[in-house]
């Protein structure tokens, strides 16, 4: 397998330097992973990276607007099917991905690993000791998590695969996957402990917990931090560590 990366020009607080679109080649055929947003220049750059090669599929790691929307337009242009776990109105997945499904391209196989947590429909594509992980991890910052229980399970599962490198949807390659995955697991568990301590010292609203756990945070990031606190609270309530109530 060889591949190239086409960076979309959509940098932001949530997308880092922009979305990485991956063009992988197997035996003369290519697949595109995360076609990205509908930006004509980006789609042209991806088409240029594909060149004259046949496209076996356009693969989507998850439905978010910085990853999936260009899927249909690229698939139409190259007469290729879109593969995704969960079809949503922004694009039409012709092949639905299931956990451990193998996608055959150019006589070789790319394996799909369901990787929920950031979103429920997140998928990692694995081949040759390399994982293309979408937003499971970012190259250089933390990601938004919808379901912390599922997310921690996903990180453990990816660690157990013993991969050599992870290629994220944003930012640079992660070259020591096991160390990085465990660092993120530890970070999340430490955050749980901080939230439990904040509650023990009397914080009884999400805002009060956020103020204790993220002291001096830029006010522009308060909403995002409170979202993270809510995700952790829901995990802690499921676990029974924090009493069930409407936070
Ligand atoms: Zn995302």
How would you summarize the topology of this molecule?
Layout: E1 2-7, E2 20-26, E3 29-33, H1 40-50, E4 54-59, H2 71-78, E5 82-84, E6 95-96, E7 102-105, E8 108-114, E9 123-127, E10 130-134, H3 148-160, E11 165-168, H4 177-200, H5 206-213, H6 222-239
Parallel strand pairs: 3-4, 4-5, 5-6, 10-11
Antiparallel strand pairs: 1-2, 2-3, 7-8, 8-9, 9-10
The structure holds zinc ion.
Can you tell me about this structure?
The chain is an alpha/beta fold. It folds into 2 domains: 2-175, Ribonuclease Z/Hydroxyacylglutathione hydrolase-like (Metallo-beta-lactamase, Chain A), CATH 3.60.15; 185-239, no CATH class. It contains 6 helices and 11 strands. The protein has helices spanning 40-50, 71-78, 148-160, 177-200, 206-213, 222-239, and strands at residues 2-7, 20-26, 29-33, 54-59, 82-84, 95-96, 102-105, 108-114, 123-127, 130-134, 165-168. It has a 6-stranded mixed beta sheet with strand order 1-2-3-4-5-6, covered by helices on one side. Strand 4 (54-59), helix 2 (71-78) and strand 5 form a beta-alpha-beta unit. Helix 4 (177-200) packs across helix 6 (222-239) and helix 5 crosses helix 6. It starts with a strand and ends in an 8-residue tail after the last helix. The model has no long low-confidence stretch (mean pLDDT 94). Bound molecules: zinc ion. Residues 62, 64, 118, 135 line the site of zinc ion.
User: Can you count the helices?
Assistant: 6
* Tally of DSSP β-strands: 11
Label the overall shape.
elongated
The level-1 CATH class of the largest domain: Alpha Beta
Quickly count the domains: 2
The CATH topology of the largest domain: Metallo-beta-lactamase, Chain A
Question: N-to-C terminal Cα separation, in Å?
Answer: 48 Å
Binned, the helix content reads 25-40%
Radius of gyration: 19 Å
Report the CATH superfamily of the largest domain. Ribonuclease Z/Hydroxyacylglutathione hydrolase-like
Averaged pLDDT: 94
Low-confidence runs of at least 5 consecutive residues: none
SSE pattern = EEEHEHEEEEEEHEHHH
Q: What does the main sheet amount to? A: 6 strands, mixed
CATH architecture of the largest domain: 4-Layer Sandwich
The amount of beta strand, in percent, is: 15-25%
- The structural class is alpha/beta
* Ligand species: zinc ion
């Amino acid at each position: 397998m060889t591949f190239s990366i086409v960076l979309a020009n959509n940098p932001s607080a949530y997308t880092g330097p922009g979305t990485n679109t991956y063009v992988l080649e197997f035996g003369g055929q290519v697949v595109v992973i995360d076609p990205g947003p509908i930006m004509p220049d980006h789609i042209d750059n991806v088409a240029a990276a594909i060149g004259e090669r046949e496209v076996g599929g356009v693969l989507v790691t998850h439905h978010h607007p910085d990853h999936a929307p260009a899927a249909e337009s690229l698939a139409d242009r190259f007469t290729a099917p879109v593969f995704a776990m969960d079809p949503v109105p922004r694009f039409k997945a012709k092949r639905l991905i299931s956990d451990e499904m193998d996608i055959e391209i150019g006589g070789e196989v790319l394996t799909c690993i369901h990787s929920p947590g950031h979103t429920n429909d997140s998928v990692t594509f694995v081949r040759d000791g390399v994982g293309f992980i979408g937003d499971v991890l970012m190259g250089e910052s933390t990601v938004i998590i919808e379901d912390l229980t599922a997310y921690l399970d996903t990180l453990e599962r990816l660690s157990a695969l013993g991969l050599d490198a992870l290629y994220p949807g944003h930012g640079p390659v992660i070259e020591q996957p096991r160390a990085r995955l465990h660092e993120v697991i530890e970070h999340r568990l430490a955050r749980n402990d901080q939230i439990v301590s904040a509650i023990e010292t009397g914080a009884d609203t999400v805002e009060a917990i956020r103020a204790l756990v993220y002291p001096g945070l830029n006010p522009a990031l308060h909403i995002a931090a409170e979202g993270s606190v809510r995700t952790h609270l829901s995990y802690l309530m499921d676990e029974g560590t924090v009493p069930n109530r409407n936070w």
